[in-house]
Design goal:
Elements: H1 19-33, E1 40-44, E2 59-62, H2 68-78, E3 83-89, H3 90-96, H4 98-107, E4 112-117, H5 157-161, E5 167-174, H6 178-196, E6 201-207, H7 211-214, H8 218-232, E7 236-237
Parallel strand pairs: 1-2, 1-3, 3-4, 4-6, 5-6
Antiparallel strand pairs: 5-7
């Protein structure tokens, strides 16, 4: 395709192998292909993608940690002609922002959410996240996440939101290989189309690698997704 208008010519600050780079590019491609660059508004998270506005060449604003969907709701309700999406990590969306997530979804806000699940707090040092899988070693679970130590189980966001009547679409995808990337792009595209068509809340969960916090090479991180994460977070349409 022609040179992307929705992606700036700027070097990414992300670690080698980080999934944010690819997901940023997919979103920019979709914005261009749907010709919505002049009306789209992104909400950047607090986390590794906090400066996503440096890379996307369209309107992007910031929110306090976890409040992305509250900010998005305000923008969409005051400017219903805009296509508004949040881009959030597991700590932002599923920990401090869980209340905002559940209530925006339950209200059926006509929004699109791209949820990056890398099973760890990447920016702040690799601590256990809501989505950290059982047995996974992090800086706060040095013996692996263990239910018997009171550390609980990985939170499955799509399954949690499935029962809410305001939710229109929930899809879990991954970017660990080329065929998965194609499916991820189609799911994200459809989530934007749902909003364009005036449908309710849509969320795409992207299983994404964090080689630095996982202490793996990029290749090992992508293999770990397939071998470990996808057994806990199966891909496909949840609703």
């Amino acid at each position: 395709m022609d040179e992307q208008k929705a992606l700036r010519k700027a070097p990414f600050h992300y670690c080698p192998g980080c999934g944010h780079t690819l997901t940023h590019k997919l979103i920019a491609q979709i914005v261009d292909e749907l010709d919505i660059r002049e009306i789209v508004v992104g909400i950047a998270p607090v986390g590794c993608a906090v400066i996503a506005y440096k890379y996307w060449n369209f309107d992007v604003t910031e929110s306090a940690h976890g409040r992305g969907l509250a900010v998005a709701t305000g923008i969409k309700r005051t400017h219903p002609e805009n296509i508004v999406f949040t881009y959030q990590g597991d700590g932002d969306l599923a920990s401090i922002g869980m209340a905002e997530t559940i209530h925006a979804a339950n209200r059926g806000e006509k929004l699109t959410t791209i949820f990056i699940n890398n099973a760890v707090y990447g920016m702040t040092g690799g601590q256990m996240a809501p989505t950290t899988i059982e047995g996974q070693i992090t800086t706060t679970t040095p013996f692996g996440r263990r239910e018997d130590l009171g550390e609980g189980f990985p939170l499955k966001v799509c399954e949690l939101l499935k029962s809410l009547e305001g939710v229109y679409s929930l899809v879990r995808v991954s970017i660990h290989n080329s065929s998965a990337i194609k499916e991820a792009k189609e799911a994200i595209r459809q989530a934007f189309l749902n909003q364009i068509e005036g449908r309710g809340f849509s969320l795409v969960e992207v299983i994404s690698p964090c080689p630095t916090a996982w202490h793996l090479t990029p290749k090992e991180a992508y293999d770990w997704i397939e071998e470990k994460m996808l057994t806990i977070f199966p891909l496909g349409k949840v609703k």
